[in-house]
Amino acid sequence: MLLEMSAPTHIPVLVKETIEALAVQPGGRYIDCTLGAGGHAAAILGQSSPGGQLLGIDADPEAIKIARARLEAYSSSTLLINETFANLEAICIKYDFRPVHGILFDLGLSSLQLSDASRGFSFQYDAPLDMRFSPTQEVTAADIINTYSESELAHLIKTYGEEGYSHQIAHYIVNERPIKTTLQLARIVERATGSRRGKIHPATKTFQALRIAVNQELDHLKAALKQAINLLGFEGRLVVISYHSLEDRIVKQFMQQESRDCICPPGTPTCVCGHTACLRLVNKRVIIPSSAEVQLNPRSRSAKLRAAERITTQDEYYKTAENLCFSAEVKAGGWRRPALLKKLSRSFDSVDTFSAVNFRQNL
Ligand SMILES: C[S@@+](CC[C@H](N)C(=O)[O-])C[C@H]1O[C@@H](n2cnc3c(N)ncnc32)[C@H](O)[C@@H]1O
After folding, report:
1. In this structure, are residues 180 and 120 in contact, taking their beta carbons and an 8 Å threshold?
2. From 155, 163, 224, 250, which residue has the greatest number of CB atoms within 10 Å?
3. What letter would DSSP give residue 136?
């Protein structure tokens, strides 16, 4: 029998749930901050047609190339940018792509990156320790492994890998430097841990820690989430799929904080923070893949989807109709609840837009 070698692919995770959470609608405008192989982007464009638009961002130029080919049928309604999502707001300003109806983050790396032996993400293949999403980044995994002190390495492996054997691993690494390849590192970690590990390979957590550090993944995520709020139109949706607890914690805390009116420490007698909610949680509980999906795509097993909807802050509520309703969009009838927005717009039209204070007092 002839065995066919199939080309590596990336199977998008929680696609139906993502489309639902984004509330994708025809004519909507969306941002996919982690374009990858374009699986989610294709689903968004399919669901938002006719008239949908998509801005796709990926730090990896290879991903942009693959997604561009996949999304060719939608080329007139897509804009694909090879950049880090840490610059999300600047990208949207530069390309005049805001406000939007939905923003998606599908974090981490794609199966294509993991299975590309030359990228150094996996200990399944021997390759130089690189792990950069973008070749323009200066620091590689080899730089970190070979230049950090033992205590810095132990801290990094513990913090980003949640690895219990971080001190032993760091000690072995420092004693065996220089370390150039993935397999060399994986064997050192195996020796350091005495291969004590359940189902996962002993080097899994060390490789995760290095990848997070090389790509500053957690800092970039925090920066991008803050920027996303300013780009969402009224009732626009923010959807994030994460694959490990460090990412998920950041997303959960961010969404919870931004959906509360006061974030003063518990026990503060009166509010001093002045914080007002600008998000509403769409799902109280995190969404995870069905067992059928996990069986079909084992990589999906750790996925967690969280979604929130943009609401107006009190400040915005009292501003002009233009600011509140992003009026051009609303008058074009592009939003999900044009009737409600028209009503809001009318109440603002009935007052002098510069006398918002009077309006507030009349409520
Ligand atoms: C899990 S994959 C996305 C897969 C995609 N949803 C699909 O359906 O094919 C994550 C992608 O995010 C990209 N990425 C990770 N961090 C990034 C960042 N800070 N800026 C831009 N892209 C990033 C990676 O290069 C990778 O292609």
Report:
1. no
2. 163
3. T
